[in-house]
Structure formats: structure tokens, C-alpha cells
Predict the structure.
Amino acid sequence: MDDAVQRVVVDKVGGRDAGFDDLTAALPTADCRYAVYDLDFTIGDATAKGADGEAPRSKIFFISWYISLK
């Protein structure tokens, strides 16, 4: 959030080939952050319409990152 708490400020946008480890490495160790991670994957499924028998899936994760300060 900006200082006036009026809008979301994007710190970083990962590339299409970036993995979950890249996302977690970009999170700060001493500050709070929100992250969105779009995950495409396939699951073997007998009802799938694809020629390879795989059903394409997509999930979007919303992650709240908070490190407890002691």
C-alpha cells in the first residue's frame, strides 16, 4: 500500500517462467507483503478431452506474508 493507504503498490512482477521458489526468494525477510501466484498444471484424468489424457488446470493463490517480529 502507498503511504496514504489509498492504492496497492506493486513491488515486483515475476516472469512467466518464474517458479514458486523465485516468488518466495523475492519476499522480504523483515516486512509484510501480499503475493499472487498463478499456477498452471495438469492432472491425469480419464474424463479429459485432451489427446494426451491430461486435464489442464489453473489455480491462483493469494499469499499473505508476515514474519513475526520478536
